[in-house]
């Protein structure tokens, strides 16, 4: 194992080119450790982490050259994840899982846009007070629970209590399963009563502390970006799955994220987020996506994902919302 990690270190350091010299990496590494309060158990662990950091640093520098030349529409930056390998990050933070089928005793409807309503070209629920602050899921693949959260649905209650419905807590899950659980239990606890812990725990839901419920959920037609746009404008923030498997998205800073390697096939989507709006930037259409990696990731915890480009990254593939009574 140590030999493999040493080999990875050598490979990472050899990848550092003249534009990202050893001195550049050393300075960035020192700044990174200071900014994020990074401490390591041993010199060996720090050496391995620095090797990973060097590789990520080089990726960011090379990408931002393309951004500066106008060849890509988004920039990257060093953040708190820069000492994690791509594999470790994906295994820890990405947890969307496709549900086998819509079933159970909840109401499931297919969203149909109201043709009498004119849909605006731009829309943002954040300006209307309908979006809660960005949270941080921590080292737990609970993105699906955060994706299910619109206003009052509480994350830890969902993480702990939906195993029997087919979700796997910190190992992943599905938003529609969460909606079904809330319906079957006549609600969900308040955050004050059931605070987020970022780990699997024993279900301790108490009906006396519930704050809201749902009668089921609505589905957006798979891959239909116009329907998703209409749903956001007329229904509210929409829970969506997306492909967040690319290494570069970990270090997203600003701009419109478009990745030609993204998939829009639901079985391959690996992250759950909340679509809270849409707009255009420099002629490029985008979705406003609320993530759950903290406010110090991306644009204060948000990312703009390309819209009207063949459903890039699958934002419109698996989109749904809870139905109010």
UniProtKB/TrEMBL annotation:
SUPFAM superfamilies: Cysteine proteinases. Residues 1-15 form the signal peptide. GO terms for molecular function: cysteine-type peptidase activity. GO terms for biological process: proteolysis. InterPro entries: Papain-like_cys_pep_sf (IPR038765), Pept_asp_AS (IPR025661), Pept_cys_AS (IPR000169), Pept_his_AS (IPR025660), Peptidase_C1A (IPR013128), Peptidase_C1A_C (IPR000668), Peptidase_C1A_papain-like (IPR039417), Prot_inhib_I29 (IPR013201). Keywords: Disulfide bond, Hydrolase, Protease, Signal, Thiol protease, Zymogen. The keyword Cell wall biogenesis/degradation does not apply. Pfam families: Inhibitor_I29, Peptidase_C1. Residues 29-89 form the Cathepsin propeptide inhibitor domain. Residues 119-323 form the Peptidase C1A papain C-terminal domain. Belongs to the peptidase C1 family. This is Uncharacterized protein.
């Amino acid at each position: 194992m140590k030999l493999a990690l040493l080999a990875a270190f050598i490979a990472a350091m050899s990848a550092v080119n003249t534009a990202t010299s050893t001195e550049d990496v050393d300075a960035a590494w020192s700044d990174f450790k200071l900014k994020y309060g990074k401490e390591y158990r041993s010199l060996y662990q720090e050496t391995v982490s620095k090797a990973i950091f060097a590789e990520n640093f080089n990726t960011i520098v090379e990408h931002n050259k393309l951004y500066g030349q106008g060849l890509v529409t988004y920039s990257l930056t060093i953040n708190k994840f820069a000492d994690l390998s791509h594999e470790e990050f994906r295994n820890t933070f990405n947890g969307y899982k496709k549900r086998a089928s819509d079933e159970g005793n909840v109401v499931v409807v297919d969203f149909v846009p109201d043709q009498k309503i004119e849909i605006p070209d731009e829309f943002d629920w954040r300006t209307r007070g309908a979006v809660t602050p960005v949270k941080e899921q921590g080292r737990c693949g609970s993105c699906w629970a955060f994706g299910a959260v619109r206003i009052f649905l509480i994350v830890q209650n969902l993480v702990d209590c939906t195993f029997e419905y087919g979700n796997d807590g910190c190992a992943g899950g599905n938003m529609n399963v969460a909606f079904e659980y809330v319906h079957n239990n006549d609600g969900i606890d308040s955050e004050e009563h059931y605070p987020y812990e970022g780990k699997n725990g024993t279900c301790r839901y108490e009906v006396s502390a519930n704050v809201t419920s749902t009668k089921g959920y609505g589905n957006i037609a798979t891959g239909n970006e116009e329907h998703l746009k209409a749903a956001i404008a007329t229904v509210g923030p929409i829970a969506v799955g997306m492909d967040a498997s690319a290494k570069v998205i970990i270090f997203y800073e600003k701009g419109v994220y478009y990745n030609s390697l993204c998939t829009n096939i639901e079985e391959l989507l690996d992250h759950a987020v909340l679509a809270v709006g849409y707009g255009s930037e420099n002629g490029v259409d985008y979705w406003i996506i609320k993530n759950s990696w903290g406010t110090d990731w991306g644009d204060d915890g948000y990312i703009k994902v390309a819209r009207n480009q063949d459903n890039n990254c699958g934002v419109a593939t698996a989109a749904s919302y809870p139905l109010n009574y």
